[in-house]
Amino acid sequence: MTWLWLLWLLPAAAVTYWLLVVTEGAYLGKRAVIALYDWGASSYDRVKNVRPFDDEEHLARPLLGPLQRVRHPLVLDVATGTGRLPLSLLRQWAFQGRVVGIDLSRRMLAIAQRRTFARRQRAGWVRQDAMSLPFHDDCFQAVACVEALEFLPRPSDVLAEMVRVLCPGGQLLLSNRVGIDARFFPGRALSSRVLATNLAELGLVSVRPRRWQVHYDLIQAQKPTRTAANCSTPRHREPTRSRTMAH
Question: Of the CATH numbers 3.50.50.60, 3.40.50.620, 3.30.300.30, 3.40.50.150, which one belongs to the domain with range 50-239?
Fold first, then answer.
């Protein structure tokens, strides 16, 4: 009888671990994801072993070169969590723009807001689903999504939305789950080659994948420049104000 219980408990425990820990509730629906991220917000960066210097080196600085031609660039970070990318950018003396972070976890956003309080005039936070971004077309000089794409229910829709709000000439920065770890995200994780192909089909150019971490590649791409609307001009449209958290 004991063996029968073990035969039932071990698979159940493995599935539970996969649902709650490995995939962070991604296959349990939006409410489960929000609840898990709210619950673990205070320890999230410690569990993820986030290193600010590495984030500045690998996430912020690759965007600085393309953004230097814009006087006050506007950057969007999709599924921003605790605000790793916004904080990394705002710490760069060469970056004189503004950052908007969007996420569904209220507690994650509260942490991001506290961390950027000293630079609060240049940071805004929106509690909103990434599947339908509440912004006009062509209004951000850079859009990023780090360590989040595979946790979203329809990654292809999120990619299309990010490209939509990215202005011509703007930069897209993504992380992509790779290796054996990617097999735990059926229907979500894409190979870097497939993701690069999808970005090209969305009209992006200069798609450049590079190795980042054991479980992640980084992919950077550019939206083609049009003569009618160029990211080098400051006349971008402002994002709409939807569920924006107060500073």
Answer: 3.40.50.150
